[in-house]
Amino acid sequence: MTTLAHGADTLTRDALTVLQPGFTGTTAPDWVLRRLGEGLASVGLFGRNIATPEQVTALTAQLRAERDDVLVAIDEEGGDVTRLEVRTGSSYPGNLALGAVDDVTLTREVAYDMGRRLAACGVNLDWAPSADVNSNPSNPVIGVRAFGADTALVARHTAAYVTGLQAAGVAACTKHFPGHGDTAVDSHHAMPRVDVSADVLADRDLSPFRAAIAAGSRAIMSAHILVPALDADLPATLSRRILTDLLRTELGYTGLIVTDGIEMQAIAAAYGIERGSVLAIAAGADAICVGGGHSDEETVSRLRDALVAAVRSGELPEERLADAAERVRELAHWTATTASKEPYASDADEVGLVAARRAVRVTAAPDTAFTPLTEAPYVALLTPVPNIAVGDHTPWGVAAQLAALLPGTETDSYSGENAAQTILTTAGTRRIVAVVRDEHRHDWMASTLDTLLAARPDTVVVEMGVPMSPPRGALHVATHGAARVCGQAAAEIIAGA
Question: Would you call 126 a catalytic residue per the annotation?
């Protein structure tokens, strides 16, 4: 048994300090407040915790009444992945839209405005941006969350995003190290693999993380992916070769290393969350993100006890746990001394809508002059199964925005091989606006468009995913994301507003 240099209370506090748990409800449960007094230093907010900006502000104030330097984290990427605006859609376009514009000043401005909005609500750690290079067009979980498929573009926009966010006093957590872009599996469900050489990884996937480190990213999030060229046995989150030897030693990173959600199946199914947490801290992680699915006090107790037991058995060096806890406290100190005290007064829709408008790419049918719609259309939303990161609670599309410009607009959602005939029957003589998301990834979606366009060549197509399929329709509008402002930008073009 290891001889402890500190007392049991210190060990227990350190074990709590490295956890970043979630909870249910729009106010903090008693157990969260009690744990903050016992050493818990971070909490994570999810869509279930969000009602209004005023409510979030009251919630974070409630947390800070127990611990004034608490880290309050959120998964707010803008675009398709939004928690602060989970019920309305985001006021900011996501990474792919910003990459399509390719104006690093704009990216920095969007991130700064988002950071000010988060800071005004009391949030001081954002699990963003995604620095993944979307090199696999069939990637089921990254897609529009990446700035693009070009390494240099992703690197410069990652740096700009980190700079803008942290200028607002909100710590950036660049993800998903060492790069989740070349995967065909969603790590929420199973273990993805990246089977390329170390040279390809260094040139393609690691470059944006080098840029984030140079920009001063206060945190980096690990990916639950197996990268045999770096470690043939352990996924990145659990790999000392990747987190310590590569990220710390080779890349020289000194900030906080946070795991992706430890309850994701890539880790939980193979290792369990307790063992996964111990292995992650031993490998070099400093904080365990948990609570997207497991959001109860028992989970926090189990992980705390697993870390304490691992130290007492000698499996986890006490110094490693103490070092991890100290890095959490260092980040908490940075946020407490850097957070903006100015009230948020900017019009986010102005900043975000300008960016969304600039990201739109419009293609008209050859030899056809498109005339904007003047009568209410029928909007057919071709809806794929959403990935867990995006969720199914956030509205998307163009129907609400078109209805404001063309009253009487109606809509419905469709999926599956038999959608086209139902759409044609329901639409009747009305103009059809077909809204898709990653047509290139869904055969049923492509075949539905084939049938619609054969019967109704005047159909307008709006692509709100990654625009990989050739443009088609009387008008093809690529928005590079499904944020609310992206829908607004598309609706303005369709209606000529």
Answer: no
